[in-house]
Design a protein that fits this description.
The protein has helices at 10-18, 28-32, 35-66, 69-96, 99-121, 128-152, 162-190, 193-211, 226-239, 241-257, 259-262, 264-270, 279-300, 308-328, 332-359, 363-394, 397-414. The chain is mainly α.
Length: 420
């Protein structure tokens, strides 16, 4: 296996513009042939499982403690809000400093924050404000971790294997959505929430250990410095129609269509009659993650040769229909297969968007543009949840879900990613 090379955009752009040659289709198996990528992939899987255990249990614990969907939205804002505000700075750090050092530092910080949350939750009368501040500290670390990790992954494989690496990375997040909620739900029901947070803290040790023992490629510095480095990602998005449309589609999708991922315990409790601190709820979220795994892996496997610009629009349409059906359900039995399909269309769409975007980027600006992607993908979700939470209390959660389905249907027309 030859060494990884810089993932410049020129050859991919030529292939898209000329239309007389195709970029070689990648497979997930080929990406796993790179030893460094494989080791980081497995370590990140362990860490992501711990993170999803914590995320799902924290939302369920807060809703169980307060009975307020607004409080659930606020806690999600603490965890994911920094992705929206600080990701450009995290992306600048990814292009300026050693990515290994950035990832190790923020992993240690998030591990400590998880221990603090475990201690707070174990108190007889947990304070929501203290828990909010601890979750905020973890979210700040994630705002630096996410763009740095996203910028690192494409440098670990050759350009021809980039779609496989990206689909595996998406599948990593979503396999953890299966394992994390299932394990977290069982642990929450059996031993209590504090031990879930302790488990998340320990999970970071796997990634820290691998990062300390592998050799990573250095980031290639761009020409801009200082404040101009920070805004260069926005400049790239403005110049490149495809990059800008990818990011805008993700912002709208995250804000209007993804609050269900945050308010799942509210919908499960109110409409499906599934307790938020039960194993049944853990498996409901795991079903969502299982579908997401299939959707993400499809981009690097049986859909590897397809035009991903078309897959994006097909995925948005499928998500719209499935979300509308899910919002109308009042029985837990059909909810499991429905939420599986919802996850499938969700991450087939997101992974396709991410792959189209990554193919367009030169490594000198990758960190800063991927910081905008993190803002769009993760940072915008809590903003949508903050709006959706009070609306679900004023009206009902089903109305919020159906509205998201209508917006997803509109995005089918908006998400035109063809080269102008």
């Amino acid at each position: 296996m030859s060494a990884p090379v810089e993932s410049g955009a020129e050859d991919v752009e030529d292939a898209l513009l000329e239309g007389d040659r195709a970029v070689e289709a990648s497979t997930a198996r080929a990406a796993l042939g790179y030893p460094v990528f494989r080791r980081i992939f497995l370590a990140a899987l362990v860490s992501n499982v711990g993170s999803w255990m914590q995320t799902v249990v924290l939302a369920a614990f807060v809703f169980h403690m307060t009975g307020s969907s607004t409080d659930v939205g606020l806690m999600t804002l603490a965890q994911l809000g920094p992705l929206f505000l600080l990701s450009p700075i995290g992306g600048m750090a990814a292009d300026r400093f050693m990515r290994r050092s950035v990832l190790i530092v923020v992993s240690v910080e998030q591990s400590i924050a998880a221990l603090v949350m475990a201690w707070l939750i174990s108190a007889h009368d947990p304070r929501v404000l203290s828990l909010f501040l601890a979750a905020l500290a973890s979210g700040i670390g994630q705002a630096f971790y996410a763009p740095t990790y996203s910028a690192l992954i494409p440098t670990l494989v050759e350009k021809k294997d980039l779609p496989g690496a990206i689909s595996l990375n998406s599948a990593n997040m979503n396999l953890s959505r299966v394992i994390g909620p299932a394990v977290g739900g069982v642990l929450y029901a059996k031993v209590g929430a504090p031990w879930v947070f302790v488990g998340n803290s320990v999970s970071y040790l796997a990634l820290i250990g691998v990062l300390a023992t592998v050799q990573l490629p250095a980031a290639r510095a761009g020409a801009q410095q200082g404040w101009r480095r920070l805004i260069e990602g926005f400049a790239v998005a403005r110049r490149d129609h495809v990059v800008g449309r990818c990011l805008t589609t993700m912002v709208l999708f995250s804000f209007f269509c993804l609050p269900i991922a945050v308010l799942m315990p509210v919908f499960a409790h109110n409409d499906l009659r599934i307790g938020e601190n039960t194993i049944s709820y853990g498996f409901l979220y795991a079903s969502f993650g299982a579908g997401a795994v299939v959707g993400a892996l499809s981009i690097g496997t049986f859909l590897a040769g397809q035009q991903l610009e078309r897959v994006v629009r097909f995925g948005l349409g499928g998500y719209a229909v499935t979300l509308a059906v899910f919002g109308l359900l009042r029985s837990p039995v059909p909810a499991y297969p429905t939420v599986f399909l919802l996850g499938l269309f969700y991450f087939a769409t997101v992974t396709s968007l991410a792959t189209v975007l990554q193919k367009r980027l030169d490594d000198s600006v990758r960190g800063r543009v991927m910081a905008l992607w993190v803002m769009a993908f993760g940072g915008t979700v809590p903003l949508g949840a903050i709006v959706a939470g009070p609306l679900s209390e004023l009206f009902n959660i089903a109305a919020v879900v159906i509205t998201g389905a209508a917006v997803a249907a509109g995005l089918v027309l908006f998400a035109d990613l063809r080269e102008r």
